[in-house]
Write a structure and sequence with these properties.
By secondary structure, the chain is mostly helical. The chain has three domains: 8-55; 61-101, Arc Repressor Mutant, subunit A (Orthogonal Bundle); 106-159. The chain has ten helices and no strands. The radius of gyration is 22 Å and the shape is elongated. It starts with 7 loop residues before the first helix and ends in a 6-residue tail after the last helix.
C-alpha cells in the first residue's frame, strides 16, 4: 500500500486492519501504537485511528490489564512480580497495574501453578524437591513469602513431614 497520497479508501483499509488486529484479543494502547508504527502509518492518521477506537471503546488500558491478569489466572498462573513486568512491557502505567493486581491471591495462584508440576517432582529427594518447587514458583514471578508459605504450610511439607530436610 502506498503511503503517499492516501485516499479515504486507503484510510478505511488501514482502519479495517486495525479492527482485525483488535479482533484477535484485547490490546493495550501501546500495542496498537506499535502496530501502526510498524505499518508506517503517519502520526496524523494514527491520531485519527486512536480517536475512532476510543469513541468505540475498543482501547482501554485498565480493561486490558484486568483481562490480561484474568487470562494468566486461568491459563498460566503467575505471581504479581511477573504480571507487573508483563503489563509494563505492554505499556500499562504503574497506576493501572496497581488497580489490576489489587485482588490477586498469590497463594492460590501458586498452588494452581504448582498442581501440575508437583507430580513430576514427587520422586525426587527432599532437598531437590523443595529446590525445584522454589525455582519453578520463582520463575513464575511469585514472591519469596508466597513460596515459603506454600512449601511450609501446604501439601508439599506434608509429603516430607517425617523426612529430615
Amino acid at each position: 500500500m502506498k503511503l503517499k497520497n492516501k485516499t479515504p479508501t486507503d484510510f478505511k483499509k488501514i482502519l479495517d486492519r486495525v479492527y482485525r488486529f483488535l479482533s484477535l484479543r484485547p490490546r493495550s494502547k501501546k500495542e496498537v501504537a506499535d502496530y501502526l508504527k510498524n505499518r508506517k502509518i503517519s502520526p496524523f492518521e494514527g491520531e485519527k485511528i486512536f480517536k475512532i477506537l476510543k469513541e468505540q471503546k475498543l482501547i482501554n488500558d485498565l480493561e486490558f490489564a484486568k483481562w490480561w491478569v484474568e487470562q494468566r489466572e486461568t491459563f498460566k498462573p503467575k505471581g504479581k512480580i511477573a504480571l507487573r513486568v508483563e503489563l509494563k512491557q505492554k505499556g500499562i502505567s504503574e497506576e493501572i497495574i496497581e488497580k489490576a493486581l489489587v485482588h490477586i491471591d498469590e497463594e492460590s495462584l501458586a498452588k494452581k501453578a504448582l498442581a501440575k508440576k508437583i507430580e513430576a517432582y514427587r520422586k525426587l529427594p527432599p532437598e531437590e524437591f523443595f529446590r525445584k518447587i522454589s525455582q519453578f514458583l520463582s520463575y513464575r514471578g511469585f514472591s519469596w513469602q508466597t513460596i515459603e508459605k506454600i512449601i511450609l504450610e501446604g501439601k508439599v511439607a506434608k509429603k516430607f513431614k517425617n523426612d529430615k530436610i
